[in-house]
Write a structure and sequence with these properties.
Blueprint (H helix, E strand, L loop, with lengths): L5 E4 L5 H9 L5 E4 L2 H9 L5 E8 L3 E2 L1 H7 L5 E9 L3 E5 L14 E4 L1 H6 L1 H7 L4 E4 L3 H11 L4 E5 L1 H7 L1 E5 L9 E8 L12 E7 L6 H11 L4 E7 L9 E7 L5 H13 L2 E8 L20
Parallel strand pairs: 1-2, 1-3, 7-8, 7-9
Antiparallel strand pairs: 3-4, 3-11, 5-11, 6-9, 6-10, 12-14, 12-15, 13-14
Helix pairs in contact: 8-9
Catalytic activity: prephenate + H(+) = 3-phenylpyruvate + CO2 + H2O
Pfam families: ACT, PDT
GO molecular function, one term: prephenate dehydratase activity
């Protein structure tokens, strides 16, 4: 493989593939089996860029990716909001796909597919066994090969086209405006250009004392900076003290951001900058992700 390839999770037909192809349409895209493998391959120089999902507007953060953010030395260079339209897919074979959804005995999908479609499953296929796969496209591939009318997958219409499945029900996610936020990560540039950047991501750690978090977050209020994401890490070997992932509205070239980060350094035990980049123009109320600028009521 060359260092100009883009690494993503899974195979053609996954939402990760669709995001990678949208973000880097001219590049070669290489599907890998785990988030760890993706990050390691880019850190080792086997691929140029990692495209990974960080959170979904319905099911929230992707825990495996958040854990990797603690240790990665790569920098976030861009973000993309991928519209997710989960479909219930069956195989062509057999007399025809079942028409009674309650007759489906097994459903295959990625963990996120089940989480994001839990309401549909409860309403129509509550007794079906849920079997996890490495990604939604693999779920479609598996059930198409089974040729069993009692088996279905939750995946994309693109995966159904790739593997020859039949879309039985479209847009079955509990939240109809369902988006997954993807990040592109690369080895840090020696002289990064932050011109035009309007969102910055970092991890910080504070003392476990009353008021420590409020004091840390107050530096952004005092600098007039919005917080668009704030996530807590659970205590582990990597996080002996309260640790937080945060997205703020503003680029590293902004004086207000520099002021706020300087003030945070004085209040935090540890600050790790993950990247400064251009915010997606899909950030709005309908996508489930906050814009970087204030919303007027």
């Amino acid at each position: 493989m060359t260092a100009d390839t883009i690494a993503y999770l899974g195979s053609p037909g996954t939402y990760s593939y669709q995001a990678a192809a949208t973000m880097f349409p001219e590049a070669e895209h290489v599907g890998l089996r785990t988030f760890g493998e993706i990050m390691e391959s880019v850190e080792a120089g086997a691929h140029k860029t990692a495209v990974i999902p960080i959170e979904n507007s319905t099911s929230g953060r992707i825990p495996d990716v958040h854990r990797l953010m603690l240790s990665t030395e790569m920098a976030i260079t861009s973000e993309h909001m991928q519209r997710v339209e989960h479909c219930l897919v069956q195989a062509h074979s057999g007399p025809r796909p079942v028409t009674e959804l309650s007759a489906i005995t097994r459903i295959y999908s990625h963990r996120q597919g089940f989480l994001q479609c839990s309401g549909f499953i409860e309403a129509h296929c509550r007794d079906a066994e849920q079997i996890e796969t490495v990604d939604t496209a693999d779920a479609v591939r598996v059930i198409v090969g089974m040729e069993d009318p009692g088996v279905a997958a939750i995946g994309s219409s693109v995966a159904a086209q790739v593997f020859g499945g039949v879309v039985v029900e479209r847009d079955i996610a509990d939240q109809k405006n369902n988006y997954t936020r993807f990040l592109a990560l690369e080895k840090p540039a020696l002289d990064p250009d932050y011109a035009g950047c309007d969102i910055t991501t970092l991890i910080f750690q504070i003392d476990h004392q009353p008021g420590s978090l409020i004091e840390a977050l107050a530096v952004f209020r005092d600098a007039g900076i919005n917080i668009t994401t704030l996530e807590t890490y659970t205590i582990s070997e990597e996080t002996a003290l309260p640790t937080f992932y945060i997205d703020i509205g503003g680029g590293l070239e902004d004086a207000a951001v520099q002021e706020a980060l300087g003030a945070l350094e004085a209040k935090a035990r540890y600050v790790k900058l993950l990247g400064s980049y251009v915010a997606s123009d899909v950030r709005n109320a309908n996508s489930g992700f906050l814009p970087v600028k204030s919303i007027n009521p």
